Amino acid sequence: MPKFDVSKADLERLVGKEFSVEEWEDLFLYAKCELDDVWEEDGRIYFKADSKDTNRPDLWSAEGIARQIRWALGFQKGLPEYGVEDSGVTVYVDEKLKDIRPYGLYAIVEGLSLDEEALRQMINLQEKVALTFGRRRREVAIGVFDFDKIKPPIYYRAAEKTERFVPLGFEEEMTLEEILEKHEKGREHGHLIRDKPYYPLLVDSEGKVLSMPPIINSEITGRVTPETRNVFIDVTGWDLNKVMLALNVVVTALAERGGKIRSVKVVYPDFEIRTPDLTPKEFEVGLDYIKRLTGLELSDGEIKDLLERMMYSVELVDGRARLRYPAFRDDIMHARDVLEDVLIAYGYNEIEPEEPELAVQGRGDKFIEFEDAIRELMVGYGLQEVMTFNLTNRESQYGKMLLEPGGDLFSHPPAELVEIENPISPKWSALRVWLIPSLLDFLSQNTHEEYPQRIFEVGKATLIDESRETKTVSESKVAVALAHPRVTFTEAKEILESVMHHLGFTYELESIDHPSFIPGRAGKIVVEGKPIGIIGEIHPAVLENWGIEMPVAAFEMFLRPLYRAPYL
Fold this sequence. Notes:
nucleotide-binding; Phenylalanyl-tRNA Synthetase, Chain B, domain 1; Phenylalanyl-tRNA Synthetase, Chain B, domain 3; ten-stranded mixed sheet; 28 strands; 568 residues; alpha+beta; ligase; 4 domains; seven-stranded mixed sheet; metal-binding; EC 6.1.1.20; 15 helices
């Protein structure tokens, strides 16, 4: 979760009131943060804020925290309003950037008075949004420039790798290729564009370079100081909605410092757009839903008041709340998200806990007992149980397994992974659809251990199911992987045969072609005419992708179809 430093004095200047350190511990909760540390430096008190929500980048700076607290305490109510006037500035986007870094959105904020703490917060917000929300600049990268040093119109264009400019922190000109090799940020983020035929460049009408997105700003225009009064903001990325959200977060944070927001016209080859777009978003929720799930005796008027303290505009109509909320938020996806805001405004510490009165006795879930019985059975075959993460990534589930999304479950995994919109790390960006890649990952990390290695896992796979409210279903599966020099399809089949015998099932194997397995050594496991799993010898190219030098045989199958077995 994002952590960042804020000055107590700066926060109180933005809120408009002073508080004790003890009071701040509770106030941070309104902004979905915890006070992680307190220290004094040069006579000033500083806090380390630990944000607990990766979907609220608007709360990752002093400006966002202070704004949230002003509303939560009732100093202001309803929807925040930010005026936006046209700047008359245009940015032209090069068609050649379509497959390189296609989207750039822009804004100008004028009339700023920036001290060192305001500058620190601005830089911190840029970095935190790009790091977490922007997936280390892959999805979103942000630049802020001294607008008074720029002559519009501005061009976001594809540049030859031999073009030159002075990158931030350097004194001499360097080619774009040299920046990727020699500059710290080039070495860190160069992989995002290194293999592209051109590199993105943002320049003004005089050819003066502003930045090389998503790598580094120019030393000439990209250094913002306390003397800077007007700034030009550049956000680039691959998803227009994410880029717009990041822009909205930054401009409204600067507006909290007294800046005046000015829009920019962005001209693409096939459309035009004016940014930022601060049009409020809309949602609707039933009042009975809020009353029932909070467990609080709240009147309609009290719910309205609590929501207005969380920056909603509220209209009560026929037992429902029609809501408008700020454009810098993108986390309202379900009624429970609104419910959470009601509880935050009410105060979790104000809720009296009650012991539930249940007229039933607890007992173990029968299917969980079945899973435990499967585990005991596998251990009886001399297999070692492993527990891997449900979270994974597209490369592990598809790329390393020589697969493309598509096909049915037993010739390929399902068509699409359930992916996380704003993951903390690209490594943990999706929920797995099959377990064998997780076992191969485990084997790849234990190549230094003795062989044979014979492992299994009883775990969950998450599949897309449009018929359900969540559009997903979590299925229990068992997977086995055997690794040693003489492993064969037959060894894996012997274990499968014994499992089916113990569970009282007969099964058939149907030969299939599957890219992850050696041709002619893969089969579909069929029970009562329905496919429930897959078995085979892992393809050498797959093993090479995982860095495994030993042959591997594996099988995997759903457990729910076998649940009626007399396992106890």
